Amino acid sequence: MSRVLACLLALCFSVAVALGSVRARAADDEKPAQETSEPKDEDPKEKEEKEKQAEEERSRKQPRLSTPYDDTRVGKEAAEQARAAMGLIEDEEMVEYVREIGARLARHAPGPRFDYEFDVVDQEVPNAFALPGGSIFISRGLLQLANSEDELACVIGHEIVHAASRHAAARQQMVQQVPGIFQFMQQPSLAAYGRDQERAADRLGQGLAGLSGYDPKGMATFLKQLEFMERLRRGASRIPGFMDTHPGTRERVSLASTRASNISWTPQPSIAGSPDAYLRMLDGMPLGVPAREGVFRRDRFLHADLGFSLRFPTGWETMNSHTAVAAISRERDAQLVLEGSGGGEDARAAAEEFLEGPEMRPLNVERQEPVQVAGEQAWRVTGHVSSGRGGMHVMITFIPWRGSVFRLTGIALNKRYEGVFVQAARSFRPMTPALLAQVTERKLRVVEAEPGETLEALSRRTQNQWKPNETAVMNALFTNATLEGGQLVKIMREEKYVPQAADG
Question: Taking the domains of the chain in order of start, what are their residue ranges?
Answer without folding.
Answer: 68-274, 283-300+439-504, 308-430
